[in-house]
Amino acid sequence: MKVRIYYGSTIGDTESIAQILGGKLEAEVVPISQGVKNIDCLDLILFGSSTWGYGELQDDWSDRIEILKDVNLSGKKIGVFGTGDQESYGDTFCDALGIIAKAARDAGGEIIGMTSRESYSFSDSKALENDQLVGLALDINNQDNLTSSRIEEWIDQLKKEI
Question: Tell me, what CATH number does 38's domain have?
Fold first, then answer.
């Protein structure tokens, strides 16, 4: 399985998660600031971002979300992951995942890796669809003890959905 991970990270948390995922999936890890290129040979593309303020994209993504409109993701399996703070920003928790998932779908990509919201305590999110999260949502501030198991479960799920 050929996988590439694109991420945007300000303080390093999302970059660390991208590197962990990259190691476990034997994937190339690329900052989104370098753009999305040479994707024809990929079986799976992962997009990662932290959510800032009240539901805003991380700066690198905010400057480049429009590039997904120019990329043909038809036939591509896409997974999204990211970090947020469900206690301080419970009504915009991991909104960046929802924003990126929408842009990827608009470009023809198929979102895989939906996860349950059961063990979270947020009130709303753009990443929420039919009572599921569109990808892997991590809260390193309040639930870091669940990060490793959530990553492992998500990787297993992605492998099944490919």
Answer: 3.40.50.360
